[in-house]
Design a protein that fits this description.
mainly alpha; three-stranded antiparallel beta sheet; 8 helices; 50% helix; globular; binds manganese (III) ion
Length: 202
C-alpha cells in the first residue's frame, strides 16, 4: 500500500488573507507532498508497506535506524490533521462538547486561548502545537519536528503547524500573528468536535 496526498478540504485561496494561496500551494503541494513521496519510497518493498500511518509512526518512534521513516510518516500524519483544523470563516469560541471540555480542563475559553498561544509561540524551532485528550483531560502541548501526539498516548484534537514554512511567506518572523489568525479566524471547531467524539469513543 502506498500513501497519497489528500486534497485540501477547501480551495487553495479559501483561507486568505490569513493563510495565503501561495503558502498553501507550497505547504500542501510541495512540503506535504514531499513527505508522502519520501515515505512511499522508504517503505517500498519493506514489511511496513502493509501498515497504516498510525502503526508506522508508533513502530518507528524512538528508533535510530528508522528515523527517516518516522519523520516522513509523522509529518504526513500531522498535516492530514492540520488542513482539517482550518476552514474559511472559522475561529472564535466553540460550541458543542468541546466547549464544555475546554471549560472543564482550562476553566474558560479565554484561559485555553492564552495557554495555546503561549505554548505555540514559545516552542523553539520546528514543530507542532496541539490540543490533545490525555486520559480524561484536555492539554495544550507542543512536539518537536515531526512527532505526533499518538507517540505519547495522547489523542490529537487540534494540530497547529509551527514550522516556519507554515507562516513565513505571510507573516515573516511574526509567529504570534499567525497563531492568533489560526485560532481566531480559521479554526474548524466542527472538526475538533468530531475528533473529540472519536477520541472518547475509541
Ligand atoms: Mn508543515
Amino acid at each position: 500500500m502506498s500513501f497519497s496526498l489528500p486534497d485540501l478540504p477547501y480551495p487553495v485561496d479559501a483561507l486568505a488573507p490569513h493563510v495565503s494561496a501561495d503558502t498553501l500551494r507550497l505547504h500542501h503541494g510541495k512540503h506535504h507532498a514531499t513527505y508522502v513521496d519520501k515515505l512511499n519510497g522508504l517503505i517500498a518493498g519493506t514489511r511496513m508497506e502493509g501498515l497504516g500511518l498510525d502503526a508506522i509512526v508508533l513502530e518507528t518512534a524512538d528508533t535510530a535506524e528508522q528515523v527517516g521513516v518516522f519523520n516522513n510518516a509523522g509529518q504526513a500524519w500531522n498535516h492530514n490533521h492540520y488542513w482539517n483544523c482550518m476552514t474559511p470563516n472559522g475561529g472564535g469560541a466553540p460550541g458543542g462538547d468541546i466547549a464544555d471540555a475546554i471549560n472543564g480542563s482550562f476553566g474558560s475559553f479565554d484561559a485555553f486561548r492564552d495557554e495555546f498561544l503561549k505554548v505555540a509561540a514559545a516552542h523553539f524551532g520546528s514543530g507542532w502545537a496541539w490540543l490533545v485528550l490525555d486520559g480524561d483531560t484536555l492539554k495544550v502541548t507542543s512536539t518537536p519536528n515531526a512527532t505526533p501526539p499518538i507517540v505519547h498516548g495522547q489523542k490529537a484534537l487540534i494540530a497547529c503547524d509551527v514550522w516556519e514554512h507554515s507562516y513565513y511567506l505571510d507573516y515573516q518572523n511574526r509567529r504570534p500573528e499567525y497563531l492568533a489568525a489560526f485560532l481566531d479566524k480559521l479554526l474548524n471547531w466542527d472538526y475538533v468536535n468530531q475528533q473529540l467524539a472519536a477520541a472518547r469513543g475509541g
